[in-house]
């Protein structure tokens, strides 16, 4: 096929996908905004956790056969570096300090700094004493999280699935703790060379200023 035929086939295929699978850009944008609105409404009902939908579901692409990826965020827990100032708005939170670990880049130990008034039960259960300090055990935390749902909420189909938890066969859940600062291990991402100018500097600044989330998953090589 020549270039004209290739272009025609590409347009035809794109139109077919829009009509039968993904939907048009406008339809995807509407579904994405609807998902964000639904997420905010749900989070108004939860006291200690917020939900964040990711994957194709969160991007407004309701693809047949794809699962739903959900990240739970413990809103009464804050992760920070030792020595950081604790803002008044977080004074009653459970504080976890990031400590260097003898693991691959991106992994840290989480040391208990203070127990908050509304510390999640599964976090309390996962604290392991090492000398004079307490650290979070990722395996115990995940299993305790699953047990809470299976025992207290009667979600019999909820089970542990590697680093995440699986509800039924379609919902994949990962637990996380919010961190109000950018991790020093990821500083290289801020200034690395970008060939096509994406993401824009304003978006990079917003991402960095928003901090990050830590997922309680152990390093397989540790």
Textual characterization of the structure:
The radius of gyration is 21 Å and the shape is globular. It has a domain at 1-48 and 55-65. The chain has seven helices and eleven strands. The protein has helices spanning 3-20, 25-43, 55-58, 121-125, 138-152, 187-191, 201-209; strands at residues 49-54, 68-74, 77-80, 94-100, 108-114, 127-130, 133-136, 158-161, 164-167, 171-179, 212-214. With 222 residues, it is of the alpha+beta class.
List the helices and strands and how they pair.
Blueprint: H1 3-20, H2 25-43, E1 49-54, H3 55-58, E2 68-74, E3 77-80, E4 94-100, E5 108-114, H4 121-125, E6 127-130, E7 133-136, H5 138-152, E8 158-161, E9 164-167, E10 171-179, H6 187-191, H7 201-209, E11 212-214
Parallel strand pairs: 2-10, 3-4
Antiparallel strand pairs: 1-2, 4-5, 6-7, 8-9, 9-10, 10-11
**Helix content range of the residues, please?**
25-40%
Show unreliable segments.
none
Describe the sheet with the most strands: 6 strands, mixed
- Strand-and-helix sequence, N→C? HHEHEEEEHEEHEEEHHE
Number of strands: 11
Nearest-angstrom radius of gyration? 21 Å
Shape: globular
Averaged pLDDT, please? 82
Q: What is the number of helical segments per DSSP (H or I, 4+ residues)?
A: 7
In terms of structural class, how would the helical and strand content be classed? alpha+beta
The end-to-end distance, rounded to whole angstroms, is 54 Å
- Beta-strand percentage? 25-35%
């Amino acid at each position: 096929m020549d270039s004209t035929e290739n272009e025609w086939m590409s347009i035809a295929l794109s139109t077919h996908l829009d009509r039968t699978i993904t939907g048009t850009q406008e339809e995807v944008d509407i579904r994405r905004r609807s998902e964000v609105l639904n997420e905010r409404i749900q989070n108004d009902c939860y006291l200690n956790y917020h939900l964040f939908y990711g994957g194709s579901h969160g991007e407004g692409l309701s693809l047949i056969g794809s699962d739903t990826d959900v990240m739970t965020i413990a809103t009464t827990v804050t992760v920070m570096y030792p020595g950081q100032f604790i803002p008044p708005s977080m004074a009653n939170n459970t504080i976890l300090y990031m400590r260097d670990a003898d693991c691959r880049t991106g992994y840290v130990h989480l040391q208990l700094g203070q127990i908050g008034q509304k510390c999640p039960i599964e976090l309390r259960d996962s604290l392991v004493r090492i000398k004079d300090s307490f650290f979070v055990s990722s395996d115990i935390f995940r299993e305790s999280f699953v047990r809470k749902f299976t025992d207290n909420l009667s979600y019999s189909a909820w089970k542990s699935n590697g680093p995440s938890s699986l509800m039924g066969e379609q919902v994949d859940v990962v637990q996380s703790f919010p961190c109000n600062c950018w991790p020093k291990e990821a500083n290289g991402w801020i200034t690395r060379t970008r060939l096509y100018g994406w993401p824009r500097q304003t978006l990079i600044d917003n991402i960095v200023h928003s901090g990050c989330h830590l997922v309680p998953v152990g390093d397989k090589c540790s």
